[in-house]
Structure to design on (137 residues):
């Protein structure tokens, strides 16, 4: 009951919806989290989100599926990750990207809208360099 109250109070006061049953990683940051939704999913370590980010479930064939995010995932503004989406390690999701039921490999930059996404495959060093301003690798 108390968790429900705090959850709804946070939604009202801060305009974000981070479901209280989710387990956020040890290293998690949000810049301008206004309007962000973090639902049930598996979140890897070193997660960074911007405003308007949505992570949540989707029904398919009568079952409910949630995303899995790897380590060092960066979700830019208004990106959406839904359903049975599997995101690898060291992945940057560009602004306004919409992913549903996609498999995203390690070490890439993703943009576009499912089912017509585009991926730029990079090496781990490149992605780590792109996120070093956040995590100070």
């Amino acid at each position: 009951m108390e968790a429900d109250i705090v959850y709804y109070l946070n939604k009202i006061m801060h305009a974000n919806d981070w479901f209280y049953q989710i387990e956020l990683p040890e290293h998690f940051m949000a810049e301008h989290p206004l309007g962000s939704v973090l639902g049930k999913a598996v979140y890897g370590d070193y997660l960074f989100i911007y405003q308007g980010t949505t992570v949540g479930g989707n029904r398919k064939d009568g079952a409910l599926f949630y995303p899995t995010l790897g380590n060092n995932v960066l979700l830019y503004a208004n990106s959406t990750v839904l359903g049975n989406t599997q995101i690898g390690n060291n992945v940057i999701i560009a602004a306004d990207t919409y992913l549903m039921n996609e498999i995203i490999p390690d070490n890439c930059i993703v943009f576009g809208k499912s089912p017509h996404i585009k991926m730029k495959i990079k090496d781990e060093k490149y992605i780590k360099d792109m996120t070093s301003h956040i995590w100070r690798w």
